[in-house]
Amino acid sequence: MSNSTFPAIRFSDVSRYFGDVKAVDNVSLDILAGEFFTLLGPSGSGKTTCLRLIAGFDQPTSGSIQLHAQEVTGLPPYERDVNTVFQDYALFPHMTVEENIAYGLMIRKVPRPERQKRAAEMLELVRMPGMERRRPSQLSGGQRQRVALARALINRPRVLLLDEPLGALDLKLRQQMQVELKAIQQQVGITFIYVTHDQEEALTMSDRIAVFNQGRVEQVGTPAELYEHPASPFVAGFVGVSNLISGALAAAITGSRETFSIRPEKIRIQPSGSAIPEGFCSVEGHIRDVIYLGMHTRYLVELDGGHDLTVVEQNLDTTSMDVLAARGRRVRLVWNRSHNRPIAARD
Amino acid sequence: MDTKVSSAPTAAVAGSARARSLIQRLSTSLYLRPRLVLALLLGPPLLWMMIIYLGSLFALVVQSLFHYDSFTGQVVYRLTLENFQALLTPANLEIFGRTAGMATAVTLAASVLAFPLAYYMARYASPRVKAVLYLAVLVPLWSSYLVRVYAWRLILAKEGIINWIFTQLGLQGLLKALLGLPVIGGPSLSVSFLGMFVVFVYTWLPYMILPIQAALERVPRSLLEASGDLGARPSQTFRHVTLPLAFPGVVAGSIFTFSLTLGDFVVPYSLGNSSFFIGQAVLSLTGTAFQIPLAAAFTVVSMVIMSFYLLGARKLGAFEAL
Fold first, then answer.
1. Which of A141, B29, B64, B273 places its Cα 20 to 30 Å from the Cα of B84?
2. Sign of the CA dihedral running A258, A264, A268, A270
3. Helix (H, G, I), strand (E, B) or coil at A334
């Protein structure tokens, strides 16, 4: 059904201004059919506006949007083969679960027996069988989430849009739903476009991610590409945690003033003045702060030049007593030179 | 000297400290006794309600059960149902039917007129425009209702502006045909059920607009977007989502328009003809005939009609929209 030679969604020079605010600023983007694609960025970065442009709730100021090679710019939401799972679920409070799920079919005048049959199938898919007669007010947050998903998927859209759907759930349920969402996406084979500000969520589920910042796309890539080869300081800082080193400090470590990033988990803490292995970078400082996180510990190391580096170490053999006692200690930080990621500092 | 000067501020500080500790102790002891606070808060209004409000209602119901001696014109304190039997005469039943019919017509018209405005206020109006509209809806309620009804009598009169407009537009024939209709017509708009209906709708419209607006305001925008997203055209979204969710607001507004029309006597008195409405009947029975027991029975019946109406309204979820 889906034509793989065309992208599911193509943004061509799309901008959306609200007065003087450039919510979306000249974005061009291809999202492939069958992909789990995430729009990742902080609040106000334009990711939700992009989603609303695809759904048709909002129209671009300029540029064009294509859905499977069909121009949809200017079409209202009810004429687009796209469905949305809303952040607040937006379930109709005056309808039962079944009526909510079958709403799209009811609008398209599908006969009642088939509506009921397909609604039951969808409840099966989202693992809520037998809940047809409930009201949305009788459901938990996670169950509402599933009903919202079923209501969108029953129409078999070409693209499913998800607007931070897990934001209101607690951590445990969120992690469980992440795995389920990914499984459902693979089962139904529909293109999912997922909006989130949670980089961990994005890395967990996505085939590809577009990182948004101030209305622009900073980088598009697979989770591994973004993490290992961030294209900008913003991406390095937003996807995972990064230490950005530039200028004189960079020159002191690598011999070049070029900015590079180093991930906190790549850095090892050794006693001050200890030997530096071949091919390793090294810098001296003292531990300013220790944050014990159970599975691992985050150290804030103040270098002698005054710059702070974050270091993460797994608590393989150490206890909380050990790591907290390290506060104030002089240390040498070493890491393999090959983990340095040069970053083109923009602007 | 020195000691005197230095001791004065010390005493003042000590005094304020003592005063503060008294208020603090009072606050603390009240904080620890929430039931006492509740009793202090609710005591006066409850007392008022019990004695004045429920007391007068009780007096009304009891009055409706007393005997009226038509020869002496005195109320005899003997319990009887004869007043309610008297209500069953065809003329009195007609009064109930007429009043309930008018109340129904006014309620329907008010809801149809109020909905678009309430919808505009809830969905489209900017905060500024909304404030202006609130004011526009409420300002008529600030002037005396009696004055407004008399103003309407002038507007609707044969020499009034409505007649003049119809004449200018060459539509006198239409107006004449309207007034020629049986029951609702009359010699002029100012002496007809049609005119009465117009004035009732005008007077009670604010009470319909505000609850509908409040109900619409509580429908999240995302529900309307979700409906469109699932393929519904705006008209379908309105029918399947907006209207069902705003309906409790319509019912809440109708409680006001229906009950206010049911009990009113000023409008029928000013614009009506010899066919009475409940309020008029009560007025003439208490004022000129001084037949208090029968007047009380009339009022009890309209209270019963209203009770049934409220029960129905509760079923439709109106009280969640108030």
1. B273
2. positive
3. strand
Longest dimension (CA), chain B: 103
Chain centroid, CA B41 distance in Å: 27
Q: What does the pLDDT read at residue A30? A: 93
CB neighbour class for A252 (10 Å; exposed up to 12, middle 13-18, buried from 19)? middle
Cα separations in angstroms, A237 against A223, A228, A230, A261, A302: 14, 12, 9, 9, 19
In B124-157, which positions are buried (b, 16+ CB within 10 angstroms) versus exposed (e)? ebeeeebeebbeebeeeeeeeeeebbeebbebbb
Distance, CA of A231 to CA of A220 (rounded, Å): 9
Q: Please give, rounded to a whole number of angstroms, the shortest distance from the CA of B226 to a CA of chain A.
A: 7
**DSSP conformational letter for A275:** P
The one-letter amino acid at A193: I
| pLDDT tens, position by position, A239-249 | 888 888 888 88
Residue in A53, A86, A145, A193 to test binding to B, most B beta-carbons within 10 Å:
A86
User: What ranges do the domains of chain A cover?
Assistant: 9-238, 244-342
Inter-chain touch B245–A108, beta carbons under 8 Å: no
Can you tell me the distance from the alpha carbon of B144 to that of B152, in angstroms, rounded to the nearest whole number?
Answer: 13
The tokens for A60 are 């671009």
| A306 near B CB under 8 A | no
Cα–Cα distance between A300 and A287 in angstroms, integer?
Answer: 6
B229 to chain A: which residues are within 8 Å by CB?
55-57, 77-78, 82-84, 152
Orientation angle between helical segments B292-315 and B243-263, nearest 10 degrees: 180
Between strands A280-292 and A191-196, the pairing is unpaired
Q: How confident is the model at residue B278 (pLDDT cuts 50, 70, 90)?
A: confident
Which positions of chain A have pLDDT values less than 50?
Answer: 1-3, 347
Q: Selecting from 3.40.50.300, 3.40.50.150, 3.40.640.10, 3.20.20.70, what CATH number does the domain A9-238 have?
A: 3.40.50.300
Q: How far apart are CA B229 and CA B216, in angstroms?
A: 20
Q: What CATH number matches the domain at B83-320, 1.10.3720.10, 3.30.230.10, 1.10.530.10, 3.30.750.24?
A: 1.10.3720.10
Interchain contact, A103 vs B227, CB within 8 Å: yes
> Are residues B230 and A104, on separate chains, in Cβ contact within 8 Å?
yes
A81 touches chain B (CB under 8 A): no
Closest CA to A304 of A241, A249, A256, A243: A249
The count of CB pairs under 8 A between chains A and B is 59
Class of domain A244-342: mainly beta
User: How far is CA A69 from its chain centroid?
Assistant: 26
Model confidence pLDDT, tens digit, residues B12-30: 555 555 667 888 888 888 8
pTM: 0.78
Give per-residue pLDDT as tens, A31-52.
Answer: 999 999 999 999 889 999 999 9
Interface pTM (ipTM) of the complex? 0.83
For CA atoms B46, B51, B53, B54, the dihedral sign is positive
CA distance B243 to chain A (A): 11
